[in-house]
## 1
Amino acid sequence: MLVCSCNFITVKDIEETIVSLLDEDCWQLIVPAKVYHAMEKRGRCCGCFPQVVDIIIRTTEAYHNGRHSTQAEIFDFMARLKQFHEENRRADLERRQKSHRAA
Ligand code: FES
């Protein structure tokens, strides 16, 4: 399924990139820009980023459930990851509202 129509990126492309990033460092915080950079792509309209965030969370959780990570480690990491993305979503929304008011 196509996620990013600007770059023609599918769910499978994104999932595979996330897994390869997690193979390098399984506790790193992954953001859409990091995924796109690894794929040598750039966000253009960035309208796909909320969906990419959902894929990052889902793929990261599945990755750790399939490894030897303890439930406590996974819970703590997923809570931090979700909080990080939620804060970014809120900051992005505030930034868009400010730029919309300024225009
Ligand atoms: S839809 Fe992904 S950058 Fe535009």
Note: Strands lie at 2-4, 9-10.
## 2
Amino acid sequence: MPTINVYTELSPEEKEAKKDYIDRHSPFIAVAKTAKAGEKLAVNIRLGKDYSHPDDTDHYINEIKLFDKETLLATATLLSGINGGHGNKGQAEVTFFIVPQKNLRLTALVYCTKHGLWQNDPIEVAVS
Ligand SMILES: [Fe+2]
């Protein structure tokens, strides 16, 4: 079982020292703060806010999962080369479309083939 990395558990000093490493492994969810029940909602997940992760054959982002609380809603499997392969700087990114029925608490979990699992802080979406 790979380690699950939660960047919020690091001290401010560790965060600063490992800023680029943490950023390029961390999923960032972009989603509206409010949504209507029964209507389609786009949930974008991107790896790295300011830095991009390698896309090498032995080191790449392999999986992006989206959870609502403890429920798995979606999984995307990525293979090496999707962002141009070795030497390219594209950021792994996916957009899922979901239809919420009640308030959401969204978390993304991503898997790097070399550095394990990474998750973000949960994002709340008010559904009415
Ligand atoms: Fe990595």
Note: The longest strand covers residues 104-112.
## 3
Amino acid sequence: MPTLESPLSAEAVREGALDAIWQSSLPTDHEIRRGRRRLHAKATVIAMVLAAAYWTLVIADSALWLRLVAAVALVAGLLATATGVMHDGNHGSFSRFRWLNRVAGSTGDLLGASSWLWRFKHNHLHHGNTNVEGMDSDIEQQPFARLAPGQQWRPWHRWQRFYLWPLYGFFGMKNMFFGDVRNLRNRQIGPVALPNEPSRGVSTRLLLGKAAHISWALALPLLFNPWQHVLLFYFVCSWVVGFSLAVLFQLAHCVDLAGFTDADAPRRGSHFTSHQMLTTVDIASPVPALGHAFRWLAGGLDHQLEHHLAPRLPHTVYPAVARRFHARCAEAGFTAKMHTGLWAALRSHYRWISEMGRPPVRTLVLDRRGLS
Ligand SMILES: [Zn+2]
């Protein structure tokens, strides 16, 4: 009996094959348990680094050079907390216990960002609608930046390839002092309304989190140090942490290797795995030692694609999952996108914000849809 397959069914077969490859790449229970143990050990090391750096920088009567070393260690510890404890906790991947995930997630409040708002903004808006214009809050930075083809172009975007880099460092401080309170008061993040009315407890926890951040980051240091030094160190450390986090997330999605979906398209595209492979790019580590250091600081987000496909896995299992997934995709003719290194990722982001900074009539709109 002759069988004629329509293009749609061929695509469905291809999507099914891709899903099967992903399922076969997932970690075993043993790998997940071992990954969690490594994650908890890492969190312990981070806590010790933070305690030693804070004591040396803020409380002890240390020499200036030692304080500078401590400031670098403090920034590294804060960054690793955000990417490797807060991020995992708020995804529910730090532990199998919900309360422990909430404890890990609440380190975000200590860092100055409401963990309650983060879960909606990051888990639902960003993960659920990666690079979907009008839904993914990570690509909504108007009027400062035009990050996607469908967004309004303004004359100053011509220079965004220069001014966005220093601006990234202020995004964290903006949320700490204005953004979170404004979002809670307006009951929305960007154009999207919050899923439910924030209770009084949510507002209280948000304000307590801000107070806790100000206590350890500004008030306590002021008891031991001149106010000019405290403000200078607070500003510089906050800027570096904010810059590193913003750039880290941009390199996975806001690059010329990634695709974007307009607001009229179905959420996540028609097929979840394909949509994440379209919109999310990994970063290779050509120099293993540097790759390990980068991965430690980045909370495994050099493997953003695997994170987006399975955000509830501890980030310590992503390298093994990514090795299997990339190899099997290559065998079957699928492309799992990957920057060849950190420098290549930075250049790709630069090219994308340069392209988006040009007036739309000259913007090259590439069709990156479909599987390649
Ligand atoms: Zn995430």
Note: Strands lie at 188-189, 192-193, 282-283, 338-339.
## 4
Amino acid sequence: MGGLLHSLPMMLSVAPRVSDAFINGGGVPFEDYGQDGILAIDLMNRGLYEQRFVSYWLKSMPTVYEKLTTGGRVLDFGCGTGHATLTMAGAFAKSQFIGLDIDPASIDQASKNAQDAGLTSNLNFVRGTFSDLEPGQQFDLITTCDCIHDLTDPVGVLKKLCDLLSADGTLFIIEPKVADSLTENINPIGALYYGMSVFHCMTQSLAAGGPGLGTCLGPSGMESLVKEAGFNSFEVLELKSQMTLFYAVRH
Ligand SMILES: C[S@@+](CC[C@H](N)C(=O)[O-])C[C@H]1O[C@@H](n2cnc3c(N)ncnc32)[C@H](O)[C@@H]1O
């Protein structure tokens, strides 16, 4: 909850600019939230990743867990400050991990976090996007956490992830827990997420010319995107969480 509170000043500080964007178009770019924005996302998600990512979420997919235990290749797309990647790399010493993020400040922090944790042998943080990865790679697991709804080209990114996923691999998507329709989201968590959407997720996508999908995309919206990108299998995982939805996507 502390991380959530940290996000309030950074979101409200852009309120006049969001208001202006409602009238004139555009939005507030991701980088304009500065270090406060990066720290808020880090504080909101880090505890969950450290406590649940491996021991509960990944364990719910036994073939994925087994593959990582014996040695697999993992890409964490849009890794931010890298706590999901770091947690996995710490737990699965025989697997190789790449964290990829387009935001220089986030990836610099992720690299520092890896050094502080002494986790560098099976982990590499890459600043940039797909063209910055070594060509010809395939991954057994691709994770993308709290990220797809932010993208400027969600279907384009999902198509690339589809190409990078091995034939029997899994794309594990984590997204905010909301229902498909506005009326089903009339509750405190829906209100919180719509607020965060207007003041961060939606506006930063619109600022970069994206569709501004926003935080409250919901499972049907996500299923449409992944099917349009070429995946055939879309599963909503039955994991306990008040705030988070989990999808396992496969060829
Ligand atoms: C809300 S943050 C989530 C960060 C992290 N995955 C987490 O769960 O805390 C979304 C991240 O996606 C990254 N991102 C957005 N578009 C991207 C792209 N085209 N390629 C790589 N990363 C991207 C942003 O820089 C940002 O760090």
Note: The mean pLDDT is 96.
